[in-house]
Design brief:
Helix 1 packs parallel to helix 12 (291-304), helix 3 crosses helix 6 and helix 8 runs antiparallel to helix 9 (203-223). The protein starts with a helix and ends with a helix. It is built from 13 helices and no strands. The longest helix has 37 residues, at 115-151. It is mainly α. Helix content is 82%, strand content 0%. The chain has one domain (2-341).
Length: 342
């Protein structure tokens, strides 16, 4: 336990170091101007920003509750929200957000949800969220990507790669589950290519892992037609969840009294927020720290200018990452304390 604690403490320190370094490198020449922009903040709009950032995770808790009630009808909304906040904390402090699902399994176990049911909920949540996210980002790219790609930043090549990575995960699972020839190619020739490229070390272990994931995917996919009203409800909740996340920078701009440059609309803000999240797929540092801040500023400079983009980034990052990390950490500590006393 002490070793784990030291690892998490190191990751939190890493987040702070990379964030401070990114801020120093990106805003050091305009500190006075950025502070002046932050000084004009509208506290009413800032409150809306904070509520939206928190409500995003409340929605995740609602989604988890609805899915868990398929097998555990007595599961409560407050349990789902606690689960979501603790998961957000562990997503933030682990590389590539790898610790969130382990934390969710831990919380589910403490909430008397069987391991098999917890795994089922997390798989189904992943399938629905990943599918919804890929479709939503595809629409935003369809409407606004071409303009930004041709006019502004070379960073957009990474947006394409990020989108392809996210899309390939869900489409790869669907293809492996439904196309026997593709399944056979991946389990034979595909594995061999991975070994030659030194991406895979143990052939038998990799094949066993892949088959296990496909089996789990098949089981959860089979549940979708059996619970159509619930699945449609979860899809709608995920769309609202994504819209909240992508719209948050626009409300952060409103809190600072920042107007978009001529020719741009709130749809451009949502598209850029989606593009930033796609690039985050390449940043393995806990919380994608450093890279997220720099990417946000570079992207949003195109529509509001450098100083305004820097000030907006600070409000956006504090509200949707550091605030949630703080709340999630507090919830986790309190949850462990309460369960220990029980």
């Amino acid at each position: 336990m002490e070793k784990i604690f030291k690892s998490y403490a190191f990751n939190i320190l890493l987040i702070l170091v990379f964030t401070i370094a990114a801020l120093y490198l990106t805003i050091r020449d305009f500190v006075d101007e950025i502070l002046q922009a932050l000084g004009s903040i509208h506290w009413g709009w800032l409150t809306v920003v904070l509520i939206m950032a928190l409500f995003y995770h409340v929605l995740i808790g609602v989604i988890l509750t609805q899915l868990t009630r398929m097998s555990n009808p007595q599961y409560k909304y407050r349990q789902g929200i606690v689960n979501a906040l603790i998961a957000a904390f562990f997503h933030g402090i682990t590389p590539s957000a790898s610790g969130g699902q382990f934390a969710q399994v831990y919380v589910f176990n403490k909430q008397k949800v069987a391991l098999s049911d917890a795994a089922s909920v997390l798989w189904l949540d992943f399938i629905i969220y990943q599918s919804t996210m890929v479709f939503t980002v595809f629409l935003l790219m369809l409407f606004r990507f071409q303009y930004f790609f041709n006019t502004h930043s070379p960073l957009f090549i990474f947006v394409i790669f990020g989108f392809l990575i996210n899309a390939s995960i869900i489409f790869g699972l669907w293809s492996l589950a439904r196309l026997p020839r593709f399944h056979h190619w991946v389990s034979t020739r595909g594995i061999e290519i991975g070994i030659k490229l030194r991406l895979i070390k143990n052939k038998e272990k990799s094949i066993a892992f892949m088959e296990d994931q496909i089996d789990r995917f098949q089981v959860e996919k089979a549940k979708i037609p059996l619970h159509k009203p619930l699945i449609c409800k979860i899809i709608c909740l995920n769309i609202v969840r994504l819209m909240l996340y992508y719209f948050l920078p626009y409300i952060a701009m409103r809190s600072l009294g920042i107007s978009l440059l001529e020719g741009y609309t709130w749809l451009d803000v949502m598209a850029l927020a989606a593009f930033v999240s796609m690039i985050n797929a390449f940043i393995p540092i806990p919380g994608a720290s450093g890279g997220t801040e720099a990417t946000f500023i570079l992207m949003f400079t195109t529509i509001i200018g450098y100083i305004n983009a820097s000030a907006t980034m600070i409000i956006w990052r504090l509200s949707n990452f550091y605030l949630i990390m703080f709340i999630g950490g507090i919830v986790f500590v309190l949850y462990k304390f309460i369960n220990r006393n029980k």
